[in-house]
Amino acid sequence: MFSKILIANRGEIAVRVIRTCREMGIRTVAVYSEADADALHVRMADECYCIGAATSSESYLRIDKIIDVCKKSGAEAVHPGYGFLSENAGFARALKEAGITFIGPSAESMELMGSKIASKQAVAKFGVPLVPGINTAITDPIAAEQTAIEIGFPVLIKASAGGGGKGMRVVNNKEEFLSALQMAQSEARNSFGDDSVFIEKYVQKPRHIEIQVLADGNGNSIYLFERECSIQRRHQKLVEEAPSGILTPELRKKMGEAAVNVTKACDYQGAGTVEFLLDANMNFYFLEMNTRLQVEHPVTELITGLDLVREQIRIAAGLGFSFNPEDLKINGHAIELRICAEDPYENFLPDTGQLNTYRLPKGPGIRVDDCMEEGMSIPIFYDNMFAKLVVWAQTRDLAIERMKRAISEFEVTGVATTLPFGEFVMNHPDFKNADFDTGFIAKNFSPEALAPQELSDELVQAAAIALVEVFEQNRQVPKSENIKSGSSINHWYYNRKN
Q1: Which residues participate in catalysis according to the annotation?
Q2: What is the pLDDT of residues 103-117, one digit of tens each?
Q3: What 3-state class would DSSP assign to 157?
Q4: The domain 207-444 is classified under which CATH number: 3.50.50.60, 3.30.470.20, 3.30.300.20, 3.40.718.10?
């Protein structure tokens, strides 16, 4: 087992890895940028080293500086978390050359699964279902247009090296195809330095179902059930749950076995996630594999009782699983809400500022993975997710009610957050009935949907007067003339409450 691990990351995931290392008796090394000098992960680690300026390119993405810290500190292994260098094959290869263990898959596995085209070609050999389309890079636009016609519109143009919705275009008819292809290639080139794109049939109203996998590097691969991740904005997840509210045991087994075959296709080692699209007829198709720990891994931990970071470390140390796979079973239901510094009243516009109030919910079945304390500020240089609110209960209905309670107890002022959106989701009948897809936000959500039921003019006026009097006494509110309507009262009050 390792005696010292460097965490090549920041924020809540760095804190989360440090906590597991502490439980395992492993010393930790934190790296940080100048902007993170007072960050929680820096204070929690046994050792810490500044590796550069605030921008990621000068700090958290500097492979040379991270390896230098490993040598100075004597760290034997590196945990990459997610984001930054977590799926960088060059980083894994550089660590190996330096005699340092990368807690994750091999560089070759990452390279194979990092290419959407190559990964589809690899998993097809193992019988994993694919969306109909072209699984090679488009070189002839006219021939690609003809293929799109044969597949049938709508089709999806996707960047091979893509992620986060970049280099992706939905094309509804022949007239749009060539211009959409050019835009997708241009965006892919600017975002990833690679303009390779491919096309596939656009699955309408899909659900995003992902399977957590573990592979010990000795030919033993298992799946740890599924997560439902269909509540997304701009192709990025906001609410995740485990298990899905609609999978049957038979479908779960089929998808799990397909996910295991994906690990075999790339000779995988460690923790990973295989993502699938599920259509309205319950057909599933391989989407991609994330060769790292996922943001939403806590929901899997809560329904299985496992610590996935512990399993990652054990596998990298050559110790295999800490459990008997035959004992695995789903216990209860878990839901996660990502707490991001974004204003759902303004189309999820990113926000920055100081957390004037930051009080966490408590009680049975509540877990918060975070990196903040009251008085700290949200930095502008990195992803604006600063916490994950996760709940567990015996049933899905109870988990939804528990999440609603937890949201009501989570107090944040100083920045806008996604907490109001989380409450909206938990109260929506489509979510309660597990009857939704990745178009949930486009179909159901608008800033106006967050406002309480319309009030009468008399109640609006009374509420305005009461609010102004109370908060002006505490010098916490603008002058009364700035509060003019029921909707503005709701917006003003909710933003400061949350």
Answers
A1: 292
A2: 999 999 999 999 988
A3: strand
A4: 3.30.470.20
